[in-house]
Design goal:
By secondary structure, the protein is mostly helical. It folds into two domains: 47 residues, no CATH class; 53 residues. The chain contains five helices and no strands. The longest helix is centred in the C-terminal third of the chain and has 32 residues.
């Protein structure tokens, strides 16, 4: 066995079945000589089991994760095409209205400028 100390993180890895076989053997040897740590680990395992019972996880095969089907992808692509068309159409309508009415945000209304000039220079 190694002379490395067993850390709290090593105990958590052991409980979660995430440690290597060498670390597992080292932790088991540590637990055999430290009853307070063995009791904590037993409590953690009980808590893990209770949580798994309360919140069951669906079994997912990592080799074949669930992916969207081809039909779902096609529906998403079609919806995106329709939304793009609608956006371009509305932009075209808006630009047509702006151009046909002669509206411009850069050209101010001359009557308001005339009134301002009159109030400043001609009244006072």
């Amino acid at each position: 066995m190694s002379d490395l100390p067993v850390l709290e993180a090593d105990l958590h890895l052991y409980v979660d079945n995430g440690c290597s076989p060498e670390l597992g053997a080292r932790v088991e040897a540590y637990l055999a000589t430290h009853p307070e740590a063995a009791e904590r680990v037993a409590n953690w395992k009980t808590q893990n089991a209770a949580l798994r019972d309360m919140f069951p996880m669906p079994h997912i095969n990592p080799a074949h994760p669930t992916l969207p089907s081809a039909g779902e992808k096609e529906k998403s692509a079609t919806l995106l095409r329709y939304l793009t068309f609608l956006l371009v159409f509305l932009l075209g309508v808006t630009l047509t209205i702006i151009v046909s009415t002669g509206f411009s945000i850069f050209r101010p209304d001359m009557s308001s400028i005339r009134a301002l000039i009159y109030s400043i220079f001609l009244r006072g």
